[in-house]
Here is the input.
Amino acid sequence: MSWITDTLTSTIGRKVLMALTGLFLILFLAVHLAGNLQLLMNDGGEAFNKYAYNMGHNPLIRVVSIGNFVFILLHIVVSILLTRRNKAARPVGYKESAGASNSTWASRNMGVLGTIILIFLVVHLKGFWFEFKFGAVPTVDYDGVSFKNVYLIVQEAYKELWYALFYVVSMGFLAFHLSHGFASAFQTLGLNHKKYSPIISGLGKGFAILVPLLFALIPVIIYIKSLG
Here is the structure.
């Protein structure tokens, strides 16, 4: 187990862990978005409820879900360790120099962005995942089979203006976090190439805009529909 200790105690090892867990979470976001977009289908929630059922009962998906929680915690812990080491190595912050203008606002504030996203994640898990698992969720029948009507819970949540706005704003912070994290993860892993790095950077920027935007559109559309 010494390799685990060496990885967690070395700066390079921690950065590699940050990159690997970050890329896994990016992949999770894409899959999660595909499932959540089913909330916008005009089928009374059938597709989303069946999707939610499969997410909770498919053995492979359950293993991946557990792994996802582990990677989220690991990503958070390693980021805290790296931040503490950086502060210890530089107890007095440097004044902004000409070099600082070459870095983006997101790259200089990844810790703040990560903290805001963590707060969103806690609220989001409490309002949905926890309720789905342990709350009194109503059921609905499709072809004689009973499913938890998680679609109804989501609809009711996004009808609340404060929560819809909270979700949209949080997706804005996620976009900034991804705008630096996507390309940075590949760079940390040494996947740099004069020809392909610009492509990776472009894909990262596109992902950072498109994915949070689509996530944000879901509560906006549901809220607008609730007004009618």
Remarks:
- Strands lie at 139-142, 145-148.
